[in-house]
Amino acid sequence: MNRKQRRAQEKHGPAPIAPGAAASIPKMLTEAFQHHQAGRLSEAAQLYQQILGLDPRHADSLHLLGNVAYSVGRHDLAVDLINQAIAVNAKVAMYHCTLGNAQKELGRLDDAISCWRRALALKPDYPEAHSNLGLVLREQGRIDEAVAHCRKAIALRADFPEAHNNLGSAVQAQGRLDDAAAAFRQAIALRPDYTEAHSNLGIVQQDLGRPDEARASHLRAQETRPGSLRYSCNAQLFMPIIADSTEAIAVSRKRYEAGIGALTDSPPFLDVSIKDVNPRSFYLAYHNVDNRPVMEALHRLFRAKVGGLTFTAPHLAGWQSPAVRGRRVRVGFLSEFLVGHTVGNLNQGFIEHLDRDRFDVVLIHTAHAKRDALSNILDRLADTSLTLPHSLEAQQQAVAAAELDVLIYPDIGMAPSTYFLAYARLAPVQAVMWGHPDTTGLDSIDYFVSSKSIEPDNAQDVYTERLIRLDRLNCYYTPPQAPTDILSRAELGLPETGILYGCPQSLFKFHPDFDAVLAAIALGDPTGRIVLIAGDNASWAEQIRARWQKTDPILLERTLFLPRMPRDRFVMMLAHIDILLDPIHFGSGNTLYEAMVGGTPVITWPGQFMRGRIVAGAYRQMGIADAPIAPRIEDYAPLALALGRDPDRREALRQSLRSAAGRDLFMDMSAVRGIEAFLDAAVAAAGRGERLPTDWHPDLQAGQSPEGGSRETGGPHAG
Description:
By secondary structure, the protein is an alpha/beta fold. The protein contains 30 helices and twelve strands. Strands 3-2-1-4-5-6-7 form a seven-stranded parallel beta sheet, with helices on one face. Pfam families: Glyco_transf_41, TPR_11, TPR_19.
């Protein structure tokens, strides 16, 4: 029904149907449905429209035409048409179920759930509605409900591959990876060419530490959908999470780089939607390798293959510096992790304390960002906050509508949605911070904001972005309240005697080179224990243990894996740790700040990249003269053991660190002033069509370049 027909119907009511015309509708509907089932959507749509020309209130045709709209990605139109069908006949469960599918694709998950619940109210034994509910409840984190609905769908129809696939995703979220793999295999047994199930099986096999099986599943998914960018990326950009050895890292990286080359040289993809595409570049940062070449190659791949990534916000065409117009600088912070997460913790102070006489702060959450207590606090601290829609195009438009002067990504590389959005030019100045401490490889990001205390002299070489080295660590960190009643060692699951060496970090930080260091500590202190965190994925600890079984079996006896714990309990645990061990190559960030609440000493060895130098940089900022910094990797274990044998030095260091952190690390307004100086200078440079020079320093006056400095021109659209 077109708009003119609908207005006429609203004014005069439905026109009577001629008897001959009414008699022809069943035959037309049968023919249309045959086209529909055969995938001839255009022919089906034409016949549905002809039926609606004869009977504008033909509910089945409205519903099926909505189905066609859904199939071609016109989800708003699908919602409109199916709602019209429901207005004619609200008693058909299928209409509500299909409407829920369209609402889900638009990101309206609560509306989708309501639709499926209405379908079940009409038809309680409706397996599709149960399965769909399971899928979306899992996305909302309501895992037990999701599992129950998926099992109900399977009980109603055991040969329902989508229900088995959705059950696999739900139990995977519970950490039951073997059960998830079994569910995905059952879905594949029912439908051997089920692309999604092959892909999901590949992901869970990767989590289980079975890289060969994982890659085989991804290759099978690619075979079933060869024109899909998503499944081709899964197959070609494969990266194990826990490395078995340094040699295995080299092999994986070589294969990853070859995958980029194969995708770059491939014919154009038929489906270039970046929804659910994950380049898995996150794990590259843990390999102790310069990632600039591979990240730039990855950028060139996606820039060439996905035209929708290239976008320029309309307000940039006539943009002028805020100083010209006498207004505040409008700064956006965009991340999926502006919640109770390291990124949220490390950026809360900037969001709160940027000078509101000069800066207008906009908080931007991605579509998949969770909501929690900290995200609500951050929303209140910002001048404006918004949550992005689901589609890339709508996200670009939403950020563009904010008309930002500066867009800051606290992290790029941790969430695919943020990575792909960062390809767009959404503000005259675009910068990334150290939430994921590695270059993005993107020509659309102007600056990487870091600190001179943690960057080596040649650091610019490993960044695509212009490196900004501020005087202070770029963090205003409010420490958690020190617990007054600390649980005992035993209550926290810790040994009651012996020195405790703690390394409570994500296990993918444990580079194989670190194993020998840990083993030397274990050998040197027979009564001590090394305390680790198992994490949400139990298989990662199993993979680490399997690696140690081959190389350093003593670690199987001397390490203790604790489960993940709430933040207050984690801080209590840190208070009992005698010595913290900073992982080599990719060290501590948030854990360092939490450790300094109680002054727990952290042994560190500064690596070749910033991501392994943060603890040493913090010691320098705090002015700790006798900081436990190993000059060579060979000195790491002896330094830890010596400190373990010296309780007096440990206590003196603890007191010194606690005092210095309160003075020079926590709630550092100098860090805020440094960010403000950078923002002012970067916006002023953009107003002149320039970028800041490589050796820019906050002490420089706007418009001045020191002797030997470089300045790049090209206006606010320059990459």
